[in-house]
Amino acid sequence: MAGSPLPVAYGDIEAAARRISAHVLRTPLVLSPSLSELSGVPVGLKLEHHQTTGSFKLRGACNALLSMSPDERKRGVVAASTGNHGRALAHAAKAEGTIATICMSHLVPDNKVAEIRRLGARVHITGASQDDAQREVERLVEQDGLVMVPPFDNPAVVAGQGTLGLEIVDSMPEVGTVLVPLSGGGLASGVALAVKTRRPGVRVIGITMERGAAMRASLDAGRPVEVPEVPSLADSLGGGIGLANRVTFAMCHALLDDIVLLSEAEIAAGMRHAYAQEREIVEGAGAVGIAALLAGKIDTHGRPLALILSGRNVDMGLHRRVVNGETDLLRENAA
Ligand SMILES: *Cc1c(COP(=O)(O)O)cnc(C)c1O
Predict the structure, then answer these.
(1) Which residues are catalytic?
(2) Backbone angle region of 210, left / alpha / beta, with phi > 0 → left and psi within -120 to 50 → alpha
(3) Is the CB of 76 under 6 A from ligand 1?
C-alpha cells in the first residue's frame, strides 16, 4: 500500500458506514457447509444480494447522495445505468426526497424502463447506444445542473461499497481471503481498502469473466484500456473502466492481490450451486465467487475465506434455464 495516497481513505469508509447505516441493510454473513467442505477451510457467504434493490450498489448510491450539499440534492441526480446502479440510485433518491433521472437508449427493453419508473425515477430515452445515453447525462449536467452519480469511479461511491468490507471483518474476524466480484472496481476498491486496513494480512482477489475483463486488461497494460464487450451471464460485470478513470484503477492496482477469470460455464455452475446447495437465487455477477471456488481457481492458503454474493437481479426465465443446465444458453451468450 506504499506510493502516492489513494483517492479514498479508510476514514471515508467509516464515515460512509455511519452515514448510510439507517438507509441500507446490514446483510448477514453465513457459513456454507458445502463450500467449506469442498475447500477445507471455513467459507463465509456475505448475502449482499438480499440488500434493498437486490444489490450492493445501494451503499454507494446512498453515500453519494447523503454526502451532497442540500443545494446539490435539490438539483437532482442523474446516471446512465439501466442495471443495478440505476435501480439503486432511483431508490436512494426517492428515499432522500430528491429526483433521479436515468438516461437510456431506445434499445433498452420495456420491462427495464418500467422497473426504473416504478422506483420513482424520471426516464430519458435517447439515441441507440449507451454512449448516446451518457451524452444525454452530460447534457443534463451542463444545462439543468443535475449532479452525476457514476456507478463506480467516484470516491463517495467507493467509500459506500467499502462498508461491505467493514461488515465482513466484523462478522468473520479470522478471515484470510476475500473474493470480490469485479467490473469497474468500485466494490473491489472499497472492500479491499476496508479489509486490508483492518486486517493487513488478508488477500483480496477480484473475480470476473474471461471476456471483457477490462480491469485485468488495464492493470496488465499499466493504464486504462478498452476491451470489446461480449454478452455474458454475468451481465452486471460488463462495460469498461473508463479511459479517464480517476479512482478505481489506482486503487485496484494498489490493493488487489490477484484477478481470477471465469468462463461462462463456470459462472453457470456457480449460479446452479448457489441455488441447489445454498438455496439462494443470485445473478451471474453475484455467483462468481462461488464459481471460482468450484473451478478450483482459488488457493485459500489454508485460511478462512469470505465471498460476496453481490446481486440477485436476474431474469427468472434465464435463471431457470441456468439451474436446469441448459447449455444452448452458454452458446447464445457466447455468440
Ligand atoms: C456493479 C456490480 C458488480 C461489479 O461492481 P464494480 O464496482 O463495477 O466492480 C458486481 N456484481 C453486481 C451484482 C453488480 O451490480
Answers:
(1) 57, 310
(2) alpha
(3) no
